[in-house]
């Protein structure tokens, strides 16, 4: 009996707990192996312990693949002094046999192990003996979430009103902010759902390049395939992927699901019963479902209204905005079945409030409110088909094509026709409809051709509804016009392209039609006046008898650099007259630009012929007072 009592007095922990996560088994002296489920966002946890009266020492060791092996040395948590007093933290003289210790461990999906060694001494007849050390091992298994979004609404089709529903992976939404939808039912609502499906990062299986249902795999790279659209699902084959940096390497941890199955709710059910479902006095299903005592939340932010990112994790709905709706909408928890372990947050709002508006979706997935960290992504619900990509084998487009620009009009330059101009939809559910039309002739009396493209659903979908065109009846159009190309080159400041296009025009056509186009005048207004002096010689820099001359534009707007450059080029006469027989000097006077007046006079503008009997008639056409105008010239 004495031997048995001594054995029972070996080193033990009467109780232990952790500040975060949940233990798989009840804590106690005999629970030598336990599993701590800890969210993958957590980077610290506090260990609480209580030893027996005979506890001599308690040491703790933390092991993790991302930590240096030198950090694996045991840390003393408690050492009994010679006077018989206990001291948490290895100090001397404390009475308590209990204490706590904060552990800092890398956040992420990787497993870690905590080993706690407890040593006891027992004394008989003035003699003490050390008993066997007891080891408590805690397997820290990380738990995270695979996030996805659902967008729901109603659309009108010839057969009536039908439901619209699409789904996106979280990572897909991070890279593709715009969500393109058909024309929704007038006066209807848009419903946004955020789905958090639990992922347990244990065990980790080496990747075999195949789908493994919900098993977590790892490899040097993420084997998730390309992002694509499959039916109503958008994203790659991975519902979860996370890169991990080790000491000397890196790897990707991912869950690969090759099949997108809508409504597969059985995947998210846990039907453990009895003691196996017990989790530190709390049912594991309840723990995964519970958002009232955790840091889980989701909210939708209307980004064009003020928002304080430093606000608390679960704010009240902000004050109403100018359209009667708040700028922060907190998504509510959707009721699930008894065995559902996923969390679904939902918000429903009038479609006209959300369409084409800048939104931000913020979600916290942690199981601990103290660790609540937001993941945020942009979201715009766009009532159009996805933009098309323009493809041209020759020539160039102005402005240069960019998918993100969502521009509807481009000019096709340095091309003879539009035969090789095409468009394609990056969303394979859509096909491209082409139409070529002839428009009015441009200012050079050249024909203007336009090729129009529109995205239409190609898959058999009777209930998809109509997608509103980006322009009147097309999504993007390419115009073949020399005038349009020169205008765009001026707007963009593309000097080299402007000169290349200008050199393609026959001199005879330039001389005949230049005055109608006003390109040189626009060049001055846009501060591209350097282009004028570099044009082919058949271009009239003076633009004599034009409605306004380039020199007059510079004088009217007090562009002194342009005036100097044009006059110093010796290609423009200082007193060149426009169609109203008005020179640049008078434009400077009319707009009271003293600097331009002085510069023109310095450059030799002749004022004497304006101070004559014809002065009254001249100034009358300018709506100026004859005597004050002539007096200004005399000065």
UniProtKB/TrEMBL annotation:
SUPFAM superfamilies: Ankyrin repeat (SSF48403). It comes from the Eukaryota. Pfam families: Ank_2. InterPro entries: Ankyrin_rpt, Ankyrin_rpt-contain_sf. This is Mask protein. It comes from Symbiodinium pilosum (Dinoflagellate). The lineage of its organism: Eukaryota, Sar, Alveolata, Dinophyceae, Suessiales. The gene is mask.
């Amino acid at each position: 009996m004495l031997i048995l009592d001594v054995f029972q007095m070996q080193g033990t922990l009467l109780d232990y707990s952790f500040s975060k996560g949940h233990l798989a088994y009840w804590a106690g002296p005999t629970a030598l192996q336990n599993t701590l489920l800890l969210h993958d966002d957590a980077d610290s946890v506090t260990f609480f312990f209580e030893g027996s009266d005979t506890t001599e020492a308690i040491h703790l060791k933390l092991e993790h693949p991302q930590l240096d092996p030198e950090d694996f040395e045991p840390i003393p948590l408690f050492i009994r002094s010679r006077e018989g007093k206990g001291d948490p933290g290895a100090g001397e003289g404390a009475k308590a046999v209990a204490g706590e210790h904060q552990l800092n461990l890398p956040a992420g999906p990787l497993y870690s192990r905590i080993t706690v060694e407890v040593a006891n001494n027992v004394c008989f007849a003035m003699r003490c003996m050390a008993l066997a050390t007891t080891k408590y091992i805690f397997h820290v298994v990380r738990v995270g979430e695979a996030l996805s979004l659902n967008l729901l609404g109603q659309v009108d089709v010839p057969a009536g009103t039908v439901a619209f529903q699409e789904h996106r992976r979280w990572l897909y939404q991070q890279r593709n902010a715009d969500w393109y939808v058909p024309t929704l039912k007038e006066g209807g609502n848009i419903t946004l759902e955020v789905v958090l499906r639990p992922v347990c990062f244990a065990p980790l299986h080496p990747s075999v390049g195949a789908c493994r249902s919900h098993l977590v795999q790892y490899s040097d790279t993420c084997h998730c395939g390309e992002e694509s659209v499959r039916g109503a699902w958008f994203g790659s084959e991975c519902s979860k992927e996370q890169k991990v940096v080790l000491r000397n390497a890196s790897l990707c941890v991912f869950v690969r699901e090759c099949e997108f199955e809508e409504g597969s709710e059985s995947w998210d059910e846990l039907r453990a019963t009895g003691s196996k479902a017990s989790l530190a006095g709390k049912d594991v299903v309840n723990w995964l479902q519970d958002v009232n005592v955790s840091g889980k939340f989701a909210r939708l932010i209307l980004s064009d209204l003020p928002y304080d990112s430093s606000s608390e994790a679960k704010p009240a709905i902000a004050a109403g905005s100018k359209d009667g709706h708040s700028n922060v909408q907190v998504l509510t928890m959707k009721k699930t079945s008894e065995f559902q372990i996923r969390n679904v947050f939902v918000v429903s709002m009038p479609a006209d409030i959300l369409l084409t508006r800048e939104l931000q979706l913020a979600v916290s997935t942690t199981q601990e409110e103290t660790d609540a960290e937001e993941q945020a992504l942009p979201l715009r619900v766009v009532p159009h088909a996805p933009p098309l990509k323009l493809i041209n084998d020759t020539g160039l487009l102005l402005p240069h094509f960019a998918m993100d620009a969502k521009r509807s009009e481009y000019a096709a330059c340095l091309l003879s026709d539009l035969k090789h101009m095409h468009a394609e939809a990056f969303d394979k559910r859509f096909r491209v409809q082409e139409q070529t039309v002839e428009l009015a002739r441009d200012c050079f009396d050249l024909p203007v051709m336009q090729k129009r493209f529109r995205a239409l659903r190609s898959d058999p979908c009777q209930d998809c509804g109509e997608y509103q065109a980006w322009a009147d009846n097309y999504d993007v159009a390419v115009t073949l016009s020399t005038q349009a190309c020169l205008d765009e080159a001026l707007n963009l400041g593309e000097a080299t392209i402007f000169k290349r296009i200008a050199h393609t025009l026959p001199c005879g056509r330039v001389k005949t039609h230049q005055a109608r186009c006003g390109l040189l005048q626009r060049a001055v207004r846009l501060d591209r006046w350097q282009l004028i002096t570099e044009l082919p010689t058949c271009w009239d820099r003076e633009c004599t008898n034009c409605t306004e001359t380039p020199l007059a534009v510079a004088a009217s707007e007090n562009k002194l650099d342009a005036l100097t450059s044009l006059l110093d080029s010796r290609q423009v006469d200082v007193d060149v007259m426009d169609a109203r027989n008005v020179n640049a000097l008078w434009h400077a006077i009319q707009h009271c630009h003293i600097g331009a007046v002085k510069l023109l006079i310095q450059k030799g503008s002749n004022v004497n012929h304006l101070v004559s009997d014809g002065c009254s008639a001249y100034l009358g056409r300018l709506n100026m007072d004859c005597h004050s105008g002539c007096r200004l010239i005399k000065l």
